[in-house]
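User: Predict structure, ligand iron/sulfur cluster.
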Amino acid sequence: MKPHFIHSFLQNDPSLRNLHKPGRYLGREWNTVIKNARSVDFSIALAFPDVYEIGMSHVGLKILYHILNADPSVRAERAFLPWPDMGELLKEKGIPLYTLESATPVKDFELMGISLQTELNYTNVLYLLELSGIPLRSKNRGKEYPVVLGGGPCTANPEPMAPFFDAFLIGEGEEAIGEIVAILRNTRDLSRKSTLAALAGIRGMYVPQLYTPFYFSDGILKKVEVNHPRAPEKVHRRWVRDLEAVPYPDRVPVPYISVVHDRAAVEISRGCTRGCRFCQAGILYRPHRERSPETVCRLAEALVESCGYNEVSFFSLSTTDHSQIREMTTELSGRLNARRVSLTLPSLRMDRFSLQIARNLSSVRKSGLTFAPEAGSERLRRVINKDLTDQQVLDTIVQAFSAGWRDLKLYFMFGLPTETPRDITAIAALIEEGLKLGKKAAGRAVNMHVSLSAFVPKPHTPFQWCSQQTVEYFEEHAALLRKNLRHLRRQVRLSWSDFQLNLVEAALARGDRHSADVVETAYRMGCIMDGWSEYFSFTRWEKAFSRCGRDPALYAQRERKEQEVLPWDHLMIGVGRGFLRRELQKGMREETTRMCRPGYPCHTCGVC
Ligand code: SF4
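Assistant: Predicted complex:
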């Protein structure tokens, strides 16, 4: 279908007015890069498996869009998963999913890049492919279809999605994307199989059809073998050595509708070596790398100038660990104040928080403050390697309330390895003491929003061998916490994650190739938008698992033996299995490991 047909549909079809947020589908936002298809010789559709307002807040997409479109011979265009009402309208009108820049059908591009941020987007990927008119499984796609490439954190274990993708990039894309484009250009005249074999030669590229998994009779994975001479035995993660040397966007498309993160986001550092043992990102993005204050300030001011944002946010896994965070916030908030632009930080650690940073942040507008103690007791925090004393937690709470904040948001997890009911009541005790001290420090009543999520054991973490607790366990412990905080309900707002959703998430996170049949069956049964509570259906997922003869508990709640082959063992993130195992054992002994940074000991995790 030609773009002008789709343009005319977008401009004239009255049914668009009845859609939920039609602004998602119009494109042509300020700073959009629109290139004439005839003036370029390579085209990429960057497709996000969730709705516009989520995808437009994703920094990775902005970085790739910026790098690709900086090359005059390449056009990169965006596509987002439509809300189901628009999805049905597209099907009804026979209109394939299109890109926002030029209303070109996604299937007319040479490469379709899909970012996998969460397992809850897996059925959305199939919806994207179906709406684009692209066969769901790679084996059913010929050269007339784009190469479908996956990226993002879920490639830490892409096996449940392996049959739907032609290839995955394990790691960071800034340097690899140019190599991928070059290979696809140079193999246009070869068969799809030859193209994929050539892609497998790029460091970080995983072409799943070149690997064959073998299972024991009980369905447990036995081994994964290479079945093609050009595929490496192990695929090694790709990461950028010098963050200062890679491009970062100084202008981005500015949405006409409000999106989740409606501000200028500047990535100040990448990676975190604090080593929280449940945290997958802390392992996937090692080692810690920084952008200089000069670069950060230049980027922040350029984004304010080019996009008109009135808020700048620092983006990183552990913002207050940037070696020059105080100087940088002071310098930048000073520069931005004059323009009435505020500076905000994502969730903050509770040990290096300083009043000075808080004051800098709140000089223009006081935004919410979020902390993540994660566990209620010092013992359990040592198990997960979050080396915080109760006193440090309380000190930070008092600092924040005495600095003028009235509401704090605190994140906790439960179902962590070795957890007991005492660790749950310890959360209540910490909250109660924090409120008491906070009220005294602020001289008035203060409030807390306490958010709890169920622990999901993730691949490539020290807890990758651990089992997830049952849904019943989470419900029981949630009730215990509610009972212990009932008398504070005026000051404490409690919120929980959906425990059944967390079971599906864990089953997919630790799934294998067999899980792909479950994903497709769930999709065919109507599962999409699983990350949206109004759409998630645990019943359908349960049926999908049983129709495929699979049990989600086998994936989520089964402890893995030390010698067991894990579905992601052939993907080398850089942190060695031995290091992860040692960290698990230290956790079980309630011992902590200090972060590794210049001036701190290296724990030989294997990355550097
Ligand atoms: S190799 Fe050493 S310095 Fe590098 S990330 Fe691992 S522990 Fe840290």
